[in-house]
Amino acid sequence: MEFSELLINCCEKVGCTNVELSKASGVDASLISRLKNGSRTLSAKSETLRKICDGFLLLKKEKNLIDIPDDLYNKFSVLLDNNSKKETEKFKTFSENFNYFIEQLNIPNNHLAKYFSVDPSLVSRIRSGKRKPADMDEFITIFSDYLKKYFFNDNNIEFYLREFELSRDELSIDNFHNKLSDRLIKKTLQKDTSIIHFLDKLNDFDLEEYIAAIKFNDIHIPKVPFSLPKNKYYCGFEEMRTGTVDFLKMVATSKKVGAITIFSDFTIEKLSEDVNFSKKWMFGLAMIIKRGNHINQVHYLDRPFKEIMLGLEAWIPLYMTGQISPYYMKCKTNQVFCHLLFSAPDIASLSGEAIAGFENEGRYLLSNRKKDMQFYEKRSQRILEKASPLMEIYKKENEKQYYEKQKGNAEKSGNRKNILSSPTLYTIPDALLKSMLSKSTLSTSVKEKILKQTDLLKQRMEIVLDKDFITDILPILSKEEFYKEPLKLQLTDIFEHSDITYSYNEYLLHIEAMENYKNNHKNYNYMVSSDRGFKNIQIFIHEGLSVTVAKSNSPNIIFVIKHKQLCEAFENMEILVRDEKQ
Q1: What phi and psi, each to the nearest 5 degrees, are found at residue 234?
Q2: Which residues pair with 235 in a beta bridge?
Q3: Whole-angstrom Cα distance, residue 72 to residue 191?
Q4: In this structure, are strands 348-355 and 337-344 parallel, antiparallel, or unpaired?
Q5: What is the mean pLDDT of residues 135-161?
Q6: Domain assignment present for 27
Q7: Do both 58 and 104 map to the same domain?
Q8: Which of 60, 398, 437, 529 is positioned for an S-S bond with 65, CB 3.0–4.6 A?
Q9: Where does a domain end: 389, 408, 441?
Q10: H or E element, residue 558
Q11: Residue 97 CB: number of other CB atoms within 10 A?
Q12: Cα separation of 247 and 128, whole Å?
């Protein structure tokens, strides 16, 4: 039963009007009217509720009624409390599903907020479950209209059919709103694990094992350059794949080394239909990298989130080399035409296009004529100017640039959330760190570097904590859990892969120091995760700005992700936590 129904029922039993109940309770008659029609409700502990119940009991006494129970306030409170729990669960389901649709359809927060005529931060809070729409039905209607206007197309129909569990002939623009409403409110979300799967793969990846598995060091690069006519046309999708392989061969066998730009906005389904081609593609890129070239890869990300993550997973091995600079285009580029542009200055260029949906009618030109190469090199530079960095990649070779960026980021506002496997260096006592380093076999210069960078890290955190919040999420292990797999000192973002393992006593000292750090810094907090997390990676989330994923070994490499939807996905990633006192 709804609160309004019980209120109407009591009014009927007492035989009173809104005005009569208002006089008896002291509650405005217009509010009573809104409570009865369901446009307003009360909390279980509301003083207004108590006044209304007292008013009913007063009328009961005046009219000498026996059908109204004396514990009326308790009945209303229990009903409201139960309804509140149901409403909370309903909104939780809605916010999770709403966030899921935004992620999977790759919808920019600011674009959706503009359509709703609200601030983007409100959309973010609704996605995270921190804010409830004033009118849920109206909110869903506007969201439905937005999806029908911008995202009801061939690229997304399969997604809707899967989510609504419909066949193609069962879904139409007319019934879309009802199907969406049911999906958002009634269906509990199956947790999307694409981010977790990506992190698992990154955590377990070992570059040396991968190199051995694909026999990278045995790759034979012919000494004689691969030759073709000065220019060659390829027609249709099959021939385009052939042209792509020919381009890779020309670059891999050339004696010239430089920066290669690769851009294509053909959908991933089209590009991955041929498994044999996919293998040739990745092998060709490996050959280019082995030759010493750098690749500027402009990714096409206007597709469902799960597909984005699967695409990035495939690039992990190449990212690990440090010879890839990934970019993405913020705007849609293939609504009418699909494009392809590969440019290797002074070696070759491959360029072409097709009408979207008719990719098999496209035409592509592979050329090593000087005039063509200069034209397409300039065009590729213009693409890079319009593209945004998908992520910055740092290895030991460019650690100085990373430290400079970290120094600048400390001044930028935004709360931080860190998902860790062990306590951070900014909470470790100097004496404990020096003691642990003294027992290691590291050189004196490396020990000094670690001490210096730890000191700089502590200084940066003081700057952050002066204005923003930092929350560390990490496991705190029992003695039994610790000895199953002892933890290592976290040197991930100092670019020193060295296995400095805690003794259990040292580990407890660092945990104690972390508690002291919390007590001495009002803007710092830590939460205890329910599992051990990722052994080889740490995740540092700077809300609204970037996400840093630092891998500690094989190789020690750091990815600073800037793509807005990817960052939001990390920010909304669910990490189970428990009370640290348990």
Answers
A1: -125, 130
A2: 363
A3: 42
A4: antiparallel
A5: 90
A6: yes
A7: no
A8: 60
A9: 389
A10: strand 557-561
A11: 19
A12: 46
Cβ-contact 240, 361 below 8 angstroms: no
In the structure encoding, which two tokens stand for residue 439, read together? 């027992």
| Structural contact between residues 240 and 352, judged by C-beta atoms closer than 8 angstroms | yes
Question: Quick check: 94 pLDDT over 60?
Answer: yes
- The DSSP secondary structure of 4-41, one letter per residue, reads HHHHHHHHHHHT--HHHHHHHH---HHHHHHHHHTS--
Q: What is the mean pLDDT of residues 267-277?
A: 68
DSSP letters spanning 519-544 = HH-TTEEEEEESS---SSEEEEEETT
User: At what angle are helices 136-150 and 109-116 packed, to 10 degrees?
Assistant: 120
Q: Are residues 212 and 314 in the same domain?
A: yes
Helix H or strand E segment including 417:
strand 416-419
Distance of CA 319 to the CA centre of its chain: 19
Please tell me the least confidently modeled range out of 139-143, 168-172, 226-230, 414-418.
226-230
Output the pLDDT for position 147. Answer: 95
Q: Is position 75 within any domain?
A: no
Q: Within 13 A of 461's CA, how many CA atoms are on the CB side?
A: 26
Residues spanned by the domain of 32: 3-70
What are the structure tokens assigned to 272, written together?
């991955």
Question: Which tens digits make up the pLDDT trace of 415-473?
Answer: 999 999 889 999 999 999 999 999 998 899 999 999 999 999 999 999 999 999 999 99
Residues 358 and 409 in one domain: no
Q: b/e string for 179-190 if b means 16 or more Cβ within 10 A?
A: bbbebbbeeebe
Exposure letters 466-489 (e unless 16+ CB within 10 A, then b): eebbbbbbbbbbeeeebeeeebbb
pTM of the model: 0.65
| Residue 539 β-bridge partners | 419, 549
Amino acid making up residue 336: V
The CATH number linked to 41 is: 1.10.260
For the chain, what is the domain count? Answer: 4
Domain finish residue from 389, 411, 443? 389
Q: Which of 221, 293, 287, 225 is nearest to 254 (CA)?
A: 225
At 220, the amino acid letter reads H
Q: Where are the beta strands (DSSP E) in 312-401?
A: 324-328, 337-344, 348-355, 363-367, 388-389, 391-394
Q: In the Cβ-directed half-sphere of 182, how many Cα atoms lie within 13 Å? A: 9
Count CA atoms within 13 Å of residue 364 on its CB side: 30
Angle at 124 between CA 299 and CA 409, to 5 degrees: 65
Beta carbons of 277 and 237 less than 8 angstroms apart: no
CA distance 110 to 125: 13
Structure-block tokens of residue 512: 């104690």
The residues with which 364 forms a beta bridge, in sequence order, are: 234, 352
Which residues touch 467 (CB under 8 Å, ≥6 apart)? Answer: 413, 523
